[in-house]
Specification:
By secondary structure, the protein is α+β, with helices and mostly antiparallel strands. Helices cover about 50% and strands about 15% of the residues. The protein contains 13 helices and seven strands.
């Protein structure tokens, strides 16, 4: 996608934001993103931003995609989360063998994919592929998709795991269990998926080791720089960017609501003239800016390295993970400060501050947003120790 193309998608999404914000309460009520919102985002081209050009995609700079994610999350955290996670899967499918890409997009390039990467599935080898059984949790947006990417272990004769794979499974081969009833990100529809003995042909399998080596059989037909970037950078950014966007939207709502508010206690006066409130606003704005600037800088440098064909240094990969989890940490701190200083008004269920506070806290518990784990990886690298992790 050219810069003009990315700008076109951004402009289309900007026009959708008021309606997405109006539907935020309904998304929470029905516990999934409303179908009309998904249709609008599909029409806007959001889910094709990281899709291969050979299937009608844009192969854009991922920094542009994550900016769109933040804008959507600012209107509705749940919708931003689903936009980000479902929207990043076309990038990963572009690394699968060509046959898998044809299976998904051959007849409909707008087919969407959900995921659940925990290796809870069990694969047994059979002629031409594998048999898959398992039940996975937290498959965000699964009500709107035709396929799922699932984590699984190849199990040997004595139950010993032999390999860790990501497998691609069509909707006809799994059951969705409606179990999503939570306190935050309520509208993501992150339900359970269950597979019982489904056949998975060899071309619908991707080995996780290849991810860490920045390889994938799909690179033969998708040679662009987008498909030479680390999974540990692209996917983890997809679960941090919505949180930063949600707190940016929360901040905007906070400023709008509190600018003209008059206190009825603590001596009265305009809230905006309170020095403590002014300091809180400055802290929050700084945390949001730091999160966005660092994440955009790292993603841009990763993409630039891929464009010119340079080897992506481990230092940059580790720094990307460091700043991604710090972005999550900054979003949490900002949401907490806004919630606290908004006073009793922030307790009313359904207001933008309360909703964003719940959404950011819920998203922070995703394994890819585990701050200490990622910071420890960076520390190991800084000390010259070997770093082995699938999310780098």
């Amino acid at each position: 996608m050219s810069d003009a193309g990315a700008a076109t998608v951004q402009a289309r999404v900007a026009a959708l934001l008021p309606a997405i914000a109006e539907r935020a309460a309904r998304a929470e009520e029905i516990r999934r993103v409303p179908q009309e919102t998904i249709a609008e985002l599909v029409d806007a081209g959001v889910f094709r931003m990281l899709q291969p050009k050979r299937y009608g995609g844009s192969e854009c700079d991922p920094t542009a995609f994550f900016r769109v994610v933040r804008a959507v999350a600012g209107a509705c955290g749940s919708t931003g989360w689903v936009t980000s996670v479902v929207g990043v899967h076309p990038w990963q499918l572009g690394l699968f063998p060509e046959g898998a890409q044809d299976d998904v997009w051959g007849s409909d390039p707008d087919t969407l994919i959900s995921s659940s990467y925990a290796p809870v599935g069990r694969l047994t080898e059979v002629d031409g592929g594998y048999r898959l059984t398992g039940r996975w949790s937290f498959s965000s947006g699964c009500d709107h998709v035709g396929w799922a990417l699932l984590g699984a272990l190849v199990v040997g004769a004595h139950g010993r795991p032999l390999d860790f794979l990501t497998v691609l499974v069509p909707r006809a081969d799994y059951v969705v269990h409606d179990v999503w009833d939570v306190m935050g990100l309520r509208g993501t529809g992150s339900n359970d998926i269950e597979v019982t003995g489904a056949f998975v042909p060899e071309h619908r399998v991707l080995r996780n080791f290849e991810h860490s080596q920045l390889r994938g059989p799909g690179q033969r037909v998708n040679p662009g720089p987008l498909y030479k970037m680390p999974f540990g950078a692209v996917f983890t950014s997809a679960v941090a960017s919505p949180l930063v966007g949600a707190v940016q939207g929360c901040y905007d709502s906070y400023i709008g609501a509190m600018r003209d508010r008059v206190r009825l206690s603590l001596g009265g006066g305009r809230f905006a003239e309170d020095a403590f409130a002014q300091v809180a606003v400055a802290r929050v704005a700084s945390e949001i800016d730091a999160a966005m600037l660092q994440m955009d800088r790292n993603m841009s440098e990763l993409y630039r390295s891929a464009v010119v064909g340079e080897e992506i240094p481990m230092e940059l990969r580790l720094r990307t993970r460091r700043d991604q989890v710090r972005a999550t940490e900054r979003a949490l701190a900002a949401a907490d400060l806004l919630f606290k200083t908004a006073g009793g008004n922030s307790l009313r269920r359904g207001n933008p501050i309360e909703r964003a506070w719940r959404d950011v806290h819920a998203g922070s518990v995703h394994v890819a947003n585990d701050v200490e784990r990622a910071l420890a990886l960076y520390g190991k690298g800084a000390f010259g120790l070997a770093v082995e992790d699938n999310l780098v």
